[in-house]
Amino acid sequence: MKKNINRPAGPESTKASLEDAVDFAIEENGFTHYSVSVATTAFSSNKLNKTDLVIDRVPYSIRAVPFTFNGQKRFYISINNGNDHVFTWDEAISQMRAIDDDSAALPAVLEEAISKWLGKER
Q: What pTM, to 2 d.p., does this model score?
């Protein structure tokens, strides 16, 4: 479940904090996971794209390469220079998701953060 981050009004809101950099939060099994994009470049739909994410204090370096399969746009996603995962649009959940054999090993909060980053590119 996505959760809005409420920032305090007044003098407190001018303080720089980790919460100010939060893109979104996901509540799962009683824990709140925060996605923070720390270095994102504009997404280009025809070339290699990179971003760095920090989720639950764990840094991830994400690389995306778009490709077309059966007329559908998909992405090869490498996490921390590891093996590629294949992401595609899933109508049932209305977001991008990993569909390769190793995708079950991806943390749900990481998959959702990548989906959000890729979301406008489907």
A: 0.63
